[in-house]
Amino acid sequence: MNATKSVKQTADVSGRETRRDGWRHFRSSMRFSMYTITHPFDGFWDLAHEHKGSLLVAHTWLALFLLTRVLKLMFTSFQFMNVAVQYLNVFEEIFSLLLPFLILCVANWSLTTLFDGKGRFRDIYTAMCYALIPYVLIQLPLVFISNVLTFEEASLYTVLMSFSIVWCVFLAFVGLMEVHDYGPGRTLFFLAFTIVGACVIIFLILVFFSLLSDAYSFFASFYREASYRLN
Known about the structure:
It is globular and about 70 Å long. The protein has 8 helices and no strands. Helix content is 82%, strand content 0%. It has one domain.
């Protein structure tokens, strides 16, 4: 009885230690993600080549990005964004951002793999998620600040919004450059082709679902016709 109790206590202690270690690792990874956006060249290099990036932190920032976008549409002052909230579909909005983001990551990985890119898909995805951090840090507070700003102060809102987008684009550029160990020119070239590749992937997905829909309609009509004739 005492031995069983001792084993149980040991397991509980071990579980608590594991949770503490996991929480410490998460906090450390979050601090590194903040370091990455302020020291992008060193940060993204360490992310790809020293494997300091964390998928959990990347998922966290991506989720916060999607949440920020939804809150922005729902709660931003009508002076700065006029959205018919009653017709807003949250899941459609999330899907319309998440799918292109993932397709861009896949397109970049597919192209750079063929042309000596050093980055793994995990590194590309993590770098792209980290590049979204300024969007969350700046635009999430702006959602609530917009409700206390006057129309004359709209220029401040616009400048901060534009700054967050420019910062995100810069981080994505530097992140992919460091992940793949490319120069600026080659990175820009593959960024352009990544967008083209993503458009091709989206086109193929749409064609596939269109054919699937046509096939479903054909077999449904065939079934109805056969049922009618047999009856």
